[in-house]
Amino acid sequence: MAVSEIDHLTDEMERCVDSCFEAVQATEWCADQCTGSEEMQDCARLCRDVADLATQCGRFCSRESTFHTRTAELCADACEECADECAQHDAEHCQVTEEHLRECADACREMVSAMS
């Protein structure tokens, strides 16, 4: 089922969910590509953390959990920190991931703002 078919979500929530799951894909790929490189350990760790948080955020938003806005705030913070780390590396996977992370952070913050 596509997120757009879930009628109880606002546009901001749909964008947040979509962005979260795109961030999961990007960060899992980036973490995998960073594995084994001494200089990329921090990037891999942050990517794994974001993948877990973004997964939870997407799930919480989809079911309108009591904690979905707080999880979205944490997810946005983690995405920004990870994007800053990715920005320090020239690897294509880091550059692609950085873009998805910044979009996810924006989507999470917009959803939180709309819910306030």
From TrEMBL:
It comes from the Archaea. This is Four-helix bundle copper-binding protein. Pfam families: Csp. The lineage of its organism: Archaea, Methanobacteriati, Methanobacteriota, Stenosarchaea group, Halobacteria.
